[in-house]
Amino acid sequence: MSKLNAISISALIRTGARPCLVCLCTLISVAPASAYRPFDGTDAAVADKDKVEIEMQPAGVRKDPSGKTLIAPAARFNYGFMDNWEAVLEGQFENPLSSPGPSTLTAAGAFLKGVLREGSLQDKTGPSVATEFGVLLPDSRGPAQFGASLAGIVSQRWDWGAVHLNGVAELTREHHADLFAGMIIEGPSKWPVRPVAEVFYEKEFGKSETVSGLVGLIWQVREDLSFDVGLRHAFTDGHPVNEVRAGMTVGFSLAALHPPRRETGR
Fold first, then answer.
1. What number does CATH give the domain 9-256?
2. How far, in Å, CA of 232 to CA of 106, rounded?
C-alpha cells in the first residue's frame, strides 16, 4: 500500500468531484443494484444483462503505521454483458495525509464474474455459487507489474439475513502468492437500513498477514440506489489498521440511454 500525505481542499475537490457527478447522473436509472459495498469480499450475484452497477466511495480514511491516507475516490464498475456474467473494472486513488507525496492509483483490476449456480440470490432455492477471475493491474507508481486473481463465492439468503463466503487465490503485483478467506453477514434485505459485518483472514506469503473485521450499515433508498458506511479494524503483522468507509451504489440500464428506433416503411 502507498505511504502518502498532505493534499489541499481544492485538490480533494478536483479528485472527487468528477466521479461524484457521474454517480449523480446515474440516479435517473431504473435497474436494481446490489450494494456490496462497504466490503472487501463480494456476493454470488452479478448485474443483469445490459445493466450497469457503479459502486462508489467518494472519500474514506485509513490509518496504519505509515500514517493517514485519504482514499478518494474508490470505484467499481460492473456491466452485465450476458445472462449471469458481468465485466468488472475497479481501482482507487490513495492520497497521503501524514507526509508529503503524490496521489497513487492502486488496487486496480479487470475481472469477469459469473454465476455458476443460481440460488437464493436469484430467487431460487439453495445457495448461489459464483466465480470471479481476472488481472491485477499495475499501480501508477512503483514497479509496473501485473498480477492475477481467482475467487469462489457462495451465498445463501434467508428471511433473517444473508451470508456470503469468499475464497480468493492471487498472484500479487509483486509476484507473491496470496490467500484470502472471508465471510459477510447481512441483516434482513426487507429492512430499509440493515446491519452488516465482515471478517476475513489474508496471508501474502513472504510479506504480510492480516486479520480484519468490519461493521456497518446499508441504507436501501430504493431499488436502484443505496448508501453505506463501514468501520474497519484490522491487524497486519500485529500492527493496527483502522479505516472509515462511506459510499453509494447505483444501477441503470444502458437501454434507457438510447431512444427506441422508429420503424420506417419501404
1. 2.40.160.40
2. 19
